[in-house]
Amino acid sequence: MKTMIYNFRRNIMQNIISANMIASCGLDCGICKRALTGTNPCPGCLGPDEKKPEFCRERCGIILCGKRIENGYKYCDECPDYPCADVMEKENRYTSKYPLYESPGENLRVIREHGMEKFLENEREKFTCKECGHVVSVHTGVCSGCGKQYGAQVIQVFDDTWRIENGMVRFFLLKGTEKALLIDSGMTVRHAKQIASALTGLPVFLLNTHADGDHTGGNGQFESFYMHPADEAQYRQDGKTGRVIPVADGDEINLGGRILKIIHLPGHTPGSIAVLDVNHRVLISGDPVQEHGHIFMFGEHRNMKDYIVSLETLEKRTNEFDEIWPSHADFPIYPDCISKLRKGAEKIINGEVTGKETEFFGRKIMVYDLGFTAFLCGE
Ligand code: SF4
Ligand code: SF4
Ligand SMILES: [Zn+2]
Ligand SMILES: [Zn+2]
Ligand SMILES: [Zn+2]
Q1: Is the CB of 53 under 6 A from ligand 1?
Q2: How is residue 137 annotated by DSSP?
Q3: Does residue 319 register a pLDDT over 50?
Q4: Class for domain 153-350, per CATH?
Q5: 282 Cα: distance to centroid of ligand 1 (angstroms)
Protein backbone atom coordinates (compact mmCIF):
# COMPACT_ATOMS: atom_id res chain seq x y z
CA MET A 1 0.00 0.00 0.00
CA LYS A 2 2.79 2.37 0.97
CA THR A 3 4.49 1.77 -2.40
CA MET A 4 1.22 2.46 -4.23
CA ILE A 5 0.76 5.81 -2.46
CA TYR A 6 4.38 6.68 -3.09
CA ASN A 7 4.08 5.89 -6.82
CA PHE A 8 0.83 7.81 -7.07
CA ARG A 9 2.40 10.94 -5.52
CA ARG A 10 5.46 10.50 -7.65
CA ASN A 11 3.33 10.42 -10.81
CA ILE A 12 1.48 13.57 -9.79
CA MET A 13 4.78 15.35 -9.25
CA GLN A 14 6.22 14.10 -12.51
CA ASN A 15 3.17 15.36 -14.41
CA ILE A 16 4.12 18.85 -13.29
CA ILE A 17 6.93 18.64 -15.81
CA SER A 18 4.65 18.54 -18.84
CA ALA A 19 4.09 20.36 -22.14
CA ASN A 20 1.48 22.73 -20.70
CA MET A 21 4.05 24.02 -18.20
CA ILE A 22 6.54 25.16 -20.86
CA ALA A 23 6.33 28.96 -21.25
CA SER A 24 6.73 30.78 -24.60
CA CYS A 25 10.35 31.66 -23.75
CA GLY A 26 11.14 27.98 -23.08
CA LEU A 27 11.16 28.23 -19.28
CA ASP A 28 9.86 25.08 -17.62
CA CYS A 29 7.31 26.35 -15.08
CA GLY A 30 7.12 22.81 -13.65
CA ILE A 31 10.38 23.39 -11.76
CA CYS A 32 9.38 26.85 -10.45
CA LYS A 33 9.10 27.09 -6.66
CA ARG A 34 5.66 28.73 -7.07
CA ALA A 35 4.36 25.72 -8.99
CA LEU A 36 5.72 23.27 -6.42
CA THR A 37 4.12 24.72 -3.28
CA GLY A 38 1.41 22.69 -1.55
CA THR A 39 -1.07 25.57 -1.24
CA ASN A 40 -2.26 27.50 -4.31
CA PRO A 41 0.37 26.25 -6.71
CA CYS A 42 0.89 28.42 -9.79
CA PRO A 43 -0.56 26.71 -12.90
CA GLY A 44 2.37 27.98 -15.00
CA CYS A 45 2.74 30.75 -17.52
CA LEU A 46 0.11 29.28 -19.86
CA GLY A 47 -2.45 28.79 -17.06
CA PRO A 48 -5.23 31.15 -15.92
CA ASP A 49 -3.98 34.58 -14.81
CA GLU A 50 -5.85 34.72 -11.48
CA LYS A 51 -3.73 31.90 -10.08
CA LYS A 52 -0.37 33.43 -11.03
CA PRO A 53 1.75 35.69 -8.84
CA GLU A 54 1.81 39.40 -9.64
CA PHE A 55 5.12 39.42 -11.54
CA CYS A 56 4.20 36.71 -13.99
CA ARG A 57 0.71 38.13 -14.43
CA GLU A 58 1.46 41.82 -14.81
CA ARG A 59 5.17 42.54 -15.23
CA CYS A 60 6.82 39.80 -17.28
CA GLY A 61 7.64 41.40 -20.64
CA ILE A 62 7.36 38.05 -22.38
CA ILE A 63 3.86 37.29 -21.13
CA LEU A 64 2.75 40.83 -21.98
CA CYS A 65 4.54 40.98 -25.35
CA GLY A 66 2.11 42.36 -27.96
CA LYS A 67 4.12 40.94 -30.84
CA ARG A 68 3.81 37.44 -29.43
CA ILE A 69 0.09 37.78 -28.77
CA GLU A 70 -0.74 39.43 -32.15
CA ASN A 71 1.22 36.93 -34.17
CA GLY A 72 0.08 33.96 -32.10
CA TYR A 73 3.62 32.70 -31.52
CA LYS A 74 3.53 29.61 -29.34
CA TYR A 75 7.25 29.86 -28.60
CA CYS A 76 9.47 32.93 -28.86
CA ASP A 77 11.89 31.29 -31.30
CA GLU A 78 9.22 31.80 -34.00
CA CYS A 79 9.69 35.57 -33.61
CA PRO A 80 12.12 37.51 -35.88
CA ASP A 81 13.29 39.53 -32.83
CA TYR A 82 14.28 36.41 -30.89
CA PRO A 83 16.11 36.61 -28.53
CA CYS A 84 14.88 40.04 -27.46
CA ALA A 85 16.10 41.85 -24.30
CA ASP A 86 13.38 40.33 -22.11
CA VAL A 87 14.26 36.84 -23.27
CA MET A 88 17.97 37.49 -22.70
CA GLU A 89 17.33 38.79 -19.18
CA LYS A 90 15.49 35.58 -18.34
CA GLU A 91 18.17 33.44 -19.99
CA ASN A 92 20.97 35.12 -18.02
CA ARG A 93 19.09 34.88 -14.77
CA TYR A 94 18.21 31.20 -15.06
CA THR A 95 21.67 30.13 -16.19
CA SER A 96 23.57 31.92 -13.41
CA LYS A 97 21.55 33.01 -10.40
CA TYR A 98 19.89 29.87 -9.08
CA PRO A 99 21.19 26.70 -7.40
CA LEU A 100 20.33 24.59 -10.47
CA TYR A 101 20.95 25.35 -14.12
CA GLU A 102 18.07 25.91 -16.51
CA SER A 103 18.40 27.45 -19.96
CA PRO A 104 15.08 28.46 -21.55
CA GLY A 105 16.92 28.98 -24.86
CA GLU A 106 18.43 25.49 -24.77
CA ASN A 107 14.99 24.11 -23.91
CA LEU A 108 13.47 25.60 -27.07
CA ARG A 109 16.34 24.27 -29.15
CA VAL A 110 15.89 20.74 -27.79
CA ILE A 111 12.12 20.91 -28.33
CA ARG A 112 12.72 21.98 -31.98
CA GLU A 113 15.42 19.41 -32.66
CA HIS A 114 14.23 16.41 -30.66
CA GLY A 115 10.55 17.01 -29.89
CA MET A 116 8.64 17.82 -26.73
CA GLU A 117 8.58 14.25 -25.37
CA LYS A 118 12.36 13.89 -25.49
CA PHE A 119 12.80 17.31 -23.89
CA LEU A 120 10.38 16.45 -21.06
CA GLU A 121 12.17 13.15 -20.47
CA ASN A 122 15.53 14.98 -20.08
CA GLU A 123 13.98 17.63 -17.89
CA ARG A 124 12.44 15.03 -15.56
CA GLU A 125 15.76 13.24 -15.36
CA LYS A 126 17.50 16.50 -14.39
CA PHE A 127 14.97 17.75 -11.85
CA THR A 128 13.63 14.60 -10.17
CA CYS A 129 14.93 13.96 -6.66
CA LYS A 130 17.08 10.83 -6.58
CA GLU A 131 15.90 10.10 -3.03
CA CYS A 132 12.12 10.36 -3.28
CA GLY A 133 11.07 10.97 -6.91
CA HIS A 134 9.55 14.43 -6.40
CA VAL A 135 10.54 17.52 -8.38
CA VAL A 136 13.40 19.76 -7.25
CA SER A 137 12.91 23.53 -7.56
CA VAL A 138 15.32 25.38 -9.84
CA HIS A 139 15.02 28.47 -7.62
CA THR A 140 15.90 26.88 -4.29
CA GLY A 141 17.51 23.54 -5.22
CA VAL A 142 15.18 21.98 -2.61
CA CYS A 143 13.20 18.80 -3.33
CA SER A 144 9.45 19.41 -3.01
CA GLY A 145 9.00 15.94 -1.50
CA CYS A 146 11.77 15.25 1.02
CA GLY A 147 13.48 18.65 1.31
CA LYS A 148 16.90 17.41 0.15
CA GLN A 149 19.14 20.25 -1.05
CA TYR A 150 20.62 20.00 -4.54
CA GLY A 151 22.89 22.25 -6.59
CA ALA A 152 24.80 25.30 -5.46
CA GLN A 153 24.06 27.42 -2.43
CA VAL A 154 26.05 30.61 -2.74
CA ILE A 155 27.08 32.26 0.53
CA GLN A 156 29.03 35.53 0.62
CA VAL A 157 31.86 35.47 3.18
CA PHE A 158 33.57 38.82 2.44
CA ASP A 159 32.80 41.57 -0.09
CA ASP A 160 35.12 39.85 -2.55
CA THR A 161 34.72 36.20 -1.50
CA TRP A 162 32.01 33.53 -1.66
CA ARG A 163 31.71 29.93 -0.63
CA ILE A 164 29.51 27.67 -2.70
CA GLU A 165 28.01 24.71 -0.89
CA ASN A 166 27.28 21.75 -3.15
CA GLY A 167 25.88 18.96 -0.94
CA MET A 168 28.83 17.28 0.80
CA VAL A 169 31.48 19.49 -0.78
CA ARG A 170 32.12 23.24 -0.94
CA PHE A 171 34.18 25.38 -3.24
CA PHE A 172 35.19 29.03 -3.29
CA LEU A 173 35.09 32.13 -5.46
CA LEU A 174 37.69 34.86 -4.92
CA LYS A 175 37.60 38.21 -6.66
CA GLY A 176 40.50 40.58 -7.31
CA THR A 177 40.44 43.84 -9.22
CA GLU A 178 41.31 42.17 -12.55
CA LYS A 179 40.11 38.61 -12.40
CA ALA A 180 38.17 36.09 -10.36
CA LEU A 181 39.26 32.61 -9.35
CA LEU A 182 37.12 29.59 -8.61
CA ILE A 183 38.89 27.24 -6.23
CA ASP A 184 37.42 23.87 -7.33
CA SER A 185 34.28 23.42 -9.38
CA GLY A 186 32.09 21.24 -7.16
CA MET A 187 30.64 17.79 -7.69
CA THR A 188 27.29 18.26 -9.42
CA VAL A 189 27.21 21.98 -10.23
CA ARG A 190 27.43 22.37 -13.99
CA HIS A 191 27.23 26.16 -14.10
CA ALA A 192 29.94 27.26 -11.66
CA LYS A 193 31.47 29.49 -14.33
CA GLN A 194 28.19 31.34 -15.02
CA ILE A 195 27.60 31.81 -11.29
CA ALA A 196 31.13 33.21 -10.89
CA SER A 197 30.81 35.58 -13.90
CA ALA A 198 27.42 36.87 -12.73
CA LEU A 199 28.70 37.55 -9.20
CA THR A 200 32.00 39.18 -10.12
CA GLY A 201 31.61 40.60 -13.63
CA LEU A 202 35.25 39.61 -14.25
CA PRO A 203 37.04 36.96 -16.33
CA VAL A 204 36.88 33.74 -14.33
CA PHE A 205 39.77 31.28 -13.93
CA LEU A 206 39.71 27.89 -12.22
CA LEU A 207 42.15 26.22 -9.84
CA ASN A 208 41.69 22.67 -8.51
CA THR A 209 42.98 21.82 -5.05
CA HIS A 210 43.33 18.25 -6.39
CA ALA A 211 41.85 15.91 -8.97
CA ASP A 212 39.19 14.02 -6.94
CA GLY A 213 35.80 14.01 -8.69
CA ASP A 214 33.96 15.95 -5.98
CA HIS A 215 36.27 18.92 -6.71
CA THR A 216 36.35 18.79 -10.50
CA GLY A 217 32.69 18.15 -11.48
CA GLY A 218 32.26 21.54 -13.18
CA ASN A 219 35.69 21.59 -14.88
CA GLY A 220 34.10 20.87 -18.29
CA GLN A 221 33.23 24.55 -18.67
CA PHE A 222 36.89 25.56 -18.63
CA GLU A 223 39.42 25.03 -21.41
CA SER A 224 42.27 25.22 -18.91
CA PHE A 225 42.74 25.29 -15.16
CA TYR A 226 45.50 25.48 -12.56
CA MET A 227 46.37 22.11 -11.05
CA HIS A 228 49.49 20.51 -9.58
CA PRO A 229 50.89 18.25 -12.35
CA ALA A 230 51.24 15.30 -9.94
CA ASP A 231 47.43 14.96 -10.06
CA GLU A 232 47.03 15.12 -13.84
CA ALA A 233 47.25 11.35 -14.44
CA GLN A 234 44.45 10.72 -11.95
CA TYR A 235 42.39 13.49 -13.54
CA ARG A 236 42.79 11.97 -17.03
CA GLN A 237 41.93 8.48 -15.72
CA ASP A 238 38.39 9.72 -15.14
CA GLY A 239 38.27 10.71 -18.85
CA LYS A 240 38.29 14.42 -18.09
CA THR A 241 39.56 16.94 -20.61
CA GLY A 242 41.02 20.47 -20.56
CA ARG A 243 44.56 21.83 -20.36
CA VAL A 244 46.41 21.77 -17.05
CA ILE A 245 48.27 24.98 -16.20
CA PRO A 246 50.84 23.57 -13.78
CA VAL A 247 51.33 25.18 -10.38
CA ALA A 248 53.97 24.31 -7.81
CA ASP A 249 54.76 25.01 -4.18
CA GLY A 250 55.67 28.68 -3.68
CA ASP A 251 53.89 29.94 -6.83
CA GLU A 252 51.84 33.09 -6.56
CA ILE A 253 48.65 33.96 -8.42
CA ASN A 254 47.73 37.64 -8.51
CA LEU A 255 44.04 38.41 -9.05
CA GLY A 256 44.76 42.16 -9.03
CA GLY A 257 45.49 43.49 -5.54
CA ARG A 258 45.01 40.02 -4.14
CA ILE A 259 47.92 37.60 -3.87
CA LEU A 260 47.35 33.87 -3.50
CA LYS A 261 50.22 31.55 -2.53
CA ILE A 262 50.29 27.88 -3.45
CA ILE A 263 51.32 25.35 -0.79
CA HIS A 264 51.93 21.78 -1.97
CA LEU A 265 50.46 19.23 0.46
CA PRO A 266 50.97 15.72 -0.98
CA GLY A 267 49.39 12.79 0.84
CA HIS A 268 45.65 12.80 0.25
CA THR A 269 46.66 12.92 -3.43
CA PRO A 270 50.21 13.49 -4.76
CA GLY A 271 49.23 16.87 -6.21
CA SER A 272 47.03 18.24 -3.40
CA ILE A 273 47.54 21.96 -2.91
CA ALA A 274 46.25 24.56 -0.50
CA VAL A 275 45.78 28.23 -1.38
CA LEU A 276 46.89 30.90 1.07
CA ASP A 277 44.81 34.05 0.66
CA VAL A 278 47.36 36.57 1.94
CA ASN A 279 44.94 39.55 2.20
CA HIS A 280 42.41 37.73 4.34
CA ARG A 281 44.89 35.47 6.19
CA VAL A 282 42.85 32.41 5.21
CA LEU A 283 44.13 28.98 4.15
CA ILE A 284 41.85 27.26 1.62
CA SER A 285 42.95 23.74 2.36
CA GLY A 286 41.11 21.31 0.07
CA ASP A 287 40.75 17.86 1.67
CA PRO A 288 43.84 17.30 3.89
CA VAL A 289 42.65 19.48 6.79
CA GLN A 290 39.12 18.87 8.07
CA GLU A 291 37.26 18.80 11.36
CA HIS A 292 34.35 16.40 11.91
CA GLY A 293 34.91 15.15 8.37
CA HIS A 294 36.23 12.03 6.69
CA ILE A 295 39.72 12.19 5.26
CA PHE A 296 40.08 9.61 2.48
CA MET A 297 43.47 7.88 2.72
CA PHE A 298 42.75 4.58 0.95
CA GLY A 299 43.55 3.81 -2.66
CA GLU A 300 46.84 3.66 -4.52
CA HIS A 301 47.42 7.41 -4.90
CA ARG A 302 47.12 8.22 -1.18
CA ASN A 303 50.20 8.27 1.05
CA MET A 304 50.02 8.60 4.82
CA LYS A 305 53.74 9.34 5.29
CA ASP A 306 53.66 12.21 2.77
CA TYR A 307 50.48 13.43 4.44
CA ILE A 308 52.22 13.70 7.82
CA VAL A 309 55.13 15.62 6.27
CA SER A 310 52.62 18.01 4.63
CA LEU A 311 50.96 18.68 7.98
CA GLU A 312 54.38 19.39 9.52
CA THR A 313 54.93 21.95 6.74
CA LEU A 314 51.63 23.61 7.62
CA GLU A 315 52.38 23.58 11.34
CA LYS A 316 55.45 25.74 10.61
CA ARG A 317 53.32 28.29 8.73
CA THR A 318 50.40 28.81 11.12
CA ASN A 319 51.61 32.40 11.71
CA GLU A 320 50.41 33.18 8.14
CA PHE A 321 46.69 32.42 8.55
CA ASP A 322 43.94 32.80 11.14
CA GLU A 323 41.29 30.57 9.61
CA ILE A 324 41.22 27.42 7.52
CA TRP A 325 38.48 26.87 4.95
CA PRO A 326 38.24 23.16 4.12
CA SER A 327 36.25 21.58 1.29
CA HIS A 328 34.24 19.34 3.62
CA ALA A 329 32.65 19.30 7.09
CA ASP A 330 33.02 22.16 9.64
CA PHE A 331 33.51 25.72 8.36
CA PRO A 332 35.61 27.62 9.26
CA ILE A 333 38.21 25.75 11.29
CA TYR A 334 41.34 27.03 13.01
CA PRO A 335 45.10 26.37 12.83
CA ASP A 336 45.19 24.35 16.09
CA CYS A 337 43.51 21.44 14.30
CA ILE A 338 46.63 20.83 12.16
CA SER A 339 48.68 19.41 15.06
CA LYS A 340 45.74 17.30 16.19
CA LEU A 341 45.46 15.80 12.70
CA ARG A 342 49.21 15.19 12.44
CA LYS A 343 49.33 13.45 15.83
CA GLY A 344 46.24 11.38 14.94
CA ALA A 345 47.80 10.31 11.61
CA GLU A 346 51.03 9.34 13.38
CA LYS A 347 49.11 7.18 15.86
CA ILE A 348 47.40 5.41 12.98
CA ILE A 349 50.62 4.48 11.16
CA ASN A 350 52.28 3.50 14.46
CA GLY A 351 49.38 1.13 15.21
CA GLU A 352 48.46 3.01 18.40
CA VAL A 353 44.75 3.31 17.59
CA THR A 354 42.34 0.61 16.59
CA GLY A 355 40.33 0.98 13.46
CA LYS A 356 37.03 -0.54 12.47
CA GLU A 357 36.78 -2.64 9.33
CA THR A 358 34.00 -1.37 7.08
CA GLU A 359 32.81 -2.00 3.56
CA PHE A 360 32.84 1.07 1.34
CA PHE A 361 31.36 0.70 -2.17
CA GLY A 362 32.40 -2.94 -2.30
CA ARG A 363 35.89 -2.51 -0.88
CA LYS A 364 37.16 -3.18 2.61
CA ILE A 365 38.60 -0.17 4.40
CA MET A 366 39.62 0.72 7.96
CA VAL A 367 37.92 3.64 9.67
CA TYR A 368 39.87 5.39 12.41
CA ASP A 369 37.44 7.69 14.16
CA LEU A 370 39.48 10.08 16.28
CA GLY A 371 36.48 12.06 17.49
CA PHE A 372 37.51 15.38 15.93
CA THR A 373 37.69 13.74 12.50
CA ALA A 374 37.88 10.27 10.93
CA PHE A 375 40.52 8.80 8.63
CA LEU A 376 39.43 6.23 6.04
CA CYS A 377 42.47 4.07 5.31
CA GLY A 378 43.33 0.96 3.34
CA GLU A 379 43.35 -2.41 5.09
S1 SF4 B 1 5.32 31.87 -11.02
FE2 SF4 B 1 5.80 32.45 -13.14
S3 SF4 B 1 7.60 31.21 -13.63
FE4 SF4 B 1 6.66 30.30 -11.81
S5 SF4 B 1 5.26 28.73 -12.57
FE6 SF4 B 1 4.09 30.60 -12.35
S7 SF4 B 1 4.16 31.56 -14.39
FE8 SF4 B 1 5.82 30.05 -14.31
S1 SF4 C 1 11.20 37.07 -28.55
FE2 SF4 C 1 9.64 38.14 -29.73
S3 SF4 C 1 7.72 37.20 -29.07
FE4 SF4 C 1 9.23 36.66 -27.52
S5 SF4 C 1 9.03 38.25 -25.96
FE6 SF4 C 1 10.66 38.87 -27.36
S7 SF4 C 1 9.63 40.18 -28.86
FE8 SF4 C 1 8.04 39.03 -27.80
ZN1 LIG D 1 13.26 14.25 -2.46
ZN1 LIG E 1 39.80 14.52 -2.15
ZN1 LIG F 1 36.83 16.05 -1.36
Answers
A1: yes
A2: P
A3: yes
A4: alpha beta
A5: 41
